[in-house]
Amino acid sequence: MQLSRKLILTAFSVLFFLYLLIHSYSASTKDKPTNLNEFLADLAWLDDWPRWLDIPLQQWTNDAIKSLVQTYGYIFDSINSGLLGVVVGLTKFLTSVPWPLVVIATMALAYFLSGRKVGTTVLVTICMFFIGFLSPKFWDKSMQTLGVMLISIFICILIGIPVAIAMSRNPRFRNAVLPILDLMQTIPSFCYLIPGIMLFGLGAVPAIIATVIYAAPPLIRLTDLGIRLVDEEVIEAAESFGASPWMKLTQVQIPLALPTIMQGINQTTLMALAMVVIASMIGTRGLGDEVLLGLQQLNVGRAAEAGIAIVLLAIVMDRITQAYGDRLQQRKKKGEI
Questions:
Q1: What's the number of domains the chain is made of?
Q2: Which residues contact 118 (CB under 8 A, 6 or more apart)?
Q3: pTM above 0.85, yes or no
Q4: Do residue 50 and residue 101 come from a single domain?
Q5: Which bin fits 286, alpha (ψ -120 to 50), beta or left (φ > 0)?
Q6: CA–CA dist 306, 287 (Å, integer)
């Protein structure tokens, strides 16, 4: 059965390749041989790749995006309006909160999530304070960046964890999704901005969409791995007590996989922050603005300050999520979860 599937897949791949070959040749408008004699008479195509042999991928992509906009433009407008409203509301809230309150709240969050670790709490508090201490304008910009990041991470969790659960429970679905995740992590992040702009325009929304595509794969992979690594004996014990599949998932597998899931959230958070500078190129306000302006003006000091502010924000997010993941790992070893 497995051999027949491989043969079918191989045959399909060969036929698809032949289709692309024939289609690219027939669709080409360049000078091309019309018969075998012309093909063999001029062998220059052996030295340089023939111009008449290329896949019209650019045209296909542009046509697909154009068709999407024309057919489902109202859906993208609704998504754009909804996400933009959430971004604006969250950003206004974060920038309106007094900065000492934000620092204190961050300190309390780090203290309790890390299991009352003083060292982690002090490091996070100092980093949060130094964001504004570098330059007062960085505080509001860091809150704008934080707003976009929080929404992006929330969407990654909302989409990524269900996909990872489905992957862990269905090997066929997992084998189908893994190449997509590889593609999402391989394509340069700049490439995600172009269709985002075409579908949603400039601003924070295409940046959020690009960030989700770029940052979701680590969360999906690690959540899938964490659930699949749960001890079979524990699952069998839950089944012997009459646990339903939903109860096994929510009360056994996910709690035991929480440390690994938190590592995935940690990696997703850092990758989302890596999109800050790139997102500034399409009109997203935040710390990336200062890096971009420093680059445009060849102002090394301005770019250095903004870069340090981004690093400080990354340390804050990384220490909090990693400390909570370590705490869950310790509780798992002690048998508390």
A1: 2
A2: 111
A3: no
A4: no
A5: left
A6: 6
